[in-house]
Every structure is written in C-alpha cells, then in structure tokens.
Design goal:
The protein is an alpha/beta fold. It has helices at 5-48, 97-112, 129-134, 137-155, 168-179, 196-208, 225-228, 231-241, 262-274, 276-293, 298-310, 314-327, 336-355, and strands spanning 56-62, 67-75, 87-91, 119-124, 161-166, 184-190, 214-223, 247-258. The protein has an 8-stranded mixed sheet, with helices on both faces. 33% of the residues are buried. Keywords: Hydrolase. This is Alpha/beta hydrolase-fold protein. Pfam families: Esterase (PF00756).
Amino acid sequence: MMYSETHFLFQAGNIKSIYKTGIRKAIVKSTLFLLFQTFVCNFCFSRVYSQLSPSDTITIHSKIFDAARKVIITKTSKIKINDTSNNCIIYMDADDRNINGIFLQSANNLMANKEIPPSYLVGIIHENRNTELLEKDKLLSFLKEELLPYLKENCSIGTPLTIAGHSFGGYFATYAFLKDNATYNACIAISPAYWPNKYEIINLFNKKQHAISGNFYLAVGDKRWDEISLREGIFKAKNILLKQKNIAFNFNDLRGFSHNATPTAGLALGLSSIYDKWEWANILEEQENRLKLFPGFWGHLEIKADALFHLNRMAQAKSFYQEALKNIPQDEKLSKPEIKEITKRLRTKIKHCRAK
C-alpha cells in the first residue's frame, strides 16, 4: 500500500496530538493522586493522636535550676478533670522529636485499645541533657519539689507515678525508681546505660533490692556497638530484678534493634507491661458483658478465666476454665481436632491454677 506525504504528516500530527493528550491526562492523574495523597496524609495525621489533646508546653521558673524549665504536657481527652487520681507518666528526652513522637504515638494507640489507662503524659525538656541525667539529683529534686506540685494542682494527678526513659534517660528513670520508690513505683528503661559513675546503678540495685516494689520493664537490643556495649550492665540488673518478689519484672531482648531503634518497640512494650493488670481488669469486665449476650460460650469463659488468672484470682480462674471445658461440646462449629486442641489447652491452664 502506498502512502502520500500528506498521510504521513496527518499521522505525525495525530500522534503528536495523542502524545500531548496523554501528557495532559498524566498530569491530571498525577495531580489528582497528589491531592488524594495529601488528603489521606492529612486525614491520617489528624487521627495520629486521636486519643490525645494537643500538647501544651509549660514553663516552670525553677529555683533548683535557677532557670526557666519547659515541660510538654499531653493528656487524653478521656481524662477526668476533677479526679485527683489521674494516671501520670513522666518521660525523658521530650525535646528529641523522635522519642517524643514514638512515646505519644505508642501511648495513644494503647489508650485507644484500652490497654493502658487514660493518662497525663509529661515530657521533660532538657537544657543540658547529659549533665542533668548523669548528675541526676538536681533533676530528681526539680521533678519532686517543683514539677509534681504543679501537676497535682493543675492536672489533678495521683501518685505513685510511672517514669520512662531511653539510654541516659533510662539510667535516670531507673535511678528515680530506686531512690524514690514511693513516688515512682513503675519504671520503663529502654537500653539504659548503667555503666556511668562506676556502675553506681548496679550498686544501688544491690543495696535497695529488698526495699523496693512496683513494676519494672527493661529492654535492650543487640545491634551495633552503642547497644552491644550496654548489655553487660543491663543483664546484671536483670539478674537482680528476677530475684525480687515485690517487683513485677518484665524483660525483652530486642534482637536486631540498634540503640536508636529500641524505643520504637520498647516504649510500647514497656507501657503494655507496666499496665498489664489494669488491662486484664478491663478484659474481665468486657468478657462478663459478652457472656450476658452469649451465655455459656466456652471462648468468652476461657478469656474471663485468663483475666482472673492474671489478676491472681486463681480459684475463680480454675472454676471458669472448668466451665469452659464442659461447654466445648456445645459448639457445633468446632471440628474434632479443634476440640482436642482446645481441651488440651484448657487442661494445661487448670494445672497452672493448681501450681500457683
């Protein structure tokens, strides 16, 4: 077939036109996609702290430091303003955007799922971080004598408190827990450096081990020297804490996490661990309500028994495990292998009740 020059010019013009149209469509499509992304991001970020009110940065004119000190206070929208027993968690390094963001996001998610109580989250902004955290008595005095009275008056917080920190912040949090256990009865120490001041913290652990009580969560990673070098001191502390009858202790070896990454997992795990009994009390209430709708269902009976077990109500836990075991055959949806597996699990849990 023969084509004229006019035909080729027409085809070239047509292709050019199609090309321009394609570009226009691509630009429109790209613009719409970017607008959609912006909407999604704004929507997501507007919900990031869905349980939390906007943070306030307050200034306290400190006589102890002879300077103005700033503190970030964030509260859940579910806080009871006139309640004098509001839960409060104090954390170090609030001036570090990564630490502050991870901590608030973790607390927000856990509060949204009723895994920790509605709380005031109080972040300490450091003026001279290393000096304040390692020469710790001045900061400890500031917290007790100046910050806590402010929080009690303006936020109606109760005591004792939870204190949390990472690295040198974990060192200070541990020191506060050991030195003033009546004020801080729960501690979250993520990758704490226990070597400063000639392992003073380990010596304090040995000295105070029979005089302290409460909850203690400890975590460490194993990647890169900054983290690996901390493990010796942390494992010394772990061995002491494991022997304490008056401390609910939990430890996580965060394999594969480097020093600056451990807060990503550790802070959430720590909060969950510290408030474990609070959550189980909620689960117990939740299962009691579900059993009103589904009386006799083995699944809700088992979870109710789990809650009772974790709340150290062993006789009741055993009774509900036995009731769940008795009601398994009524569930027609279960296969024989499933019945066998669930029966085995429940019998093991009943034995654990006897062992306790």
